[in-house]
Amino acid sequence: MLFRSQQAAEFDRRLAESRSDAERRYREMERLIVAANRAVDGLTTRWGRFVEELVRPAVIKLFKAKGIELKHTFLRASDEAGTMEIDILGVNSTDVVLVECKSRLSRDDVDEFLQKLPHFKSAFPEFATYRIYGCVAGIEIDHGVDRRAYQKGLFVIKPSGDTVAIINDDNFSPKTW
């Protein structure tokens, strides 16, 4: 009986060690996942900023060619409540162009932006009387997404040579919000 008791005690000790080791490994794995997520978020943010910085200098010239003479652009415009952020906001005395920039533009990105547009004037009441145009920009654009954006009345910007270009043709009729 004493032998069985010693075996049970040894089993309990090993089980406790295994649990402790598993908990330690689990905590380490959680720490690594958090660090990896932070690194990916940082990389994504930097890549997104790169796209914004690539597109912003061209916005005034690109939209002038489309008949919208913007005077100023603002990067990462936010409303007072912090409920809406616009990557690039181009403005003149009657028009506002909202540009959503993505390194890889997907259908979901276009759909989310389309949901955001109707709320812009309430988030930015100083532009309540302005015509609002939407534009999406992407370094890489998923198949068919540029066509979908075009059909929904959005301008589409993508890389062209050393810079970027609006790819909408002369038949395009932009939607205003």
Structure description:
It is a single chain. This protein has 177 residues and is α/β, with parallel strands linked by helices. It is built from four helices and six strands; from the N terminus they run αβββααβαββ. Strand 5 and strand 6 form a beta hairpin. The chain is elongated. The N and C termini lie far apart (84 Å). 21% of the residues are buried. The model has no long low-confidence stretch (mean pLDDT 88).
Summarize the entry for a quick read.
The chain has helices spanning about 1-65, 105-115, 120-125, 145-150; strands spanning about 70-80, 85-90, 95-105, 130-140, 155-160, 165.
Indicate the topology.
Elements lengths: L1 H63 L7 E7 L6 E7 L3 E11 L1 H10 L3 H4 L7 E11 L3 H7 L3 E6 L2 E4 L11
Parallel strand pairs: 3-4, 4-5
Antiparallel strand pairs: 1-2, 2-3, 5-6
Low-pLDDT sequence parts = none
Number-wise, the strands total 6
Q: Any idea what the radius of gyration is?
A: 26 Å
Give the termini distance in whole angstroms.
84 Å
Strand content: 25-35%
Residue share in helix: 40-55%
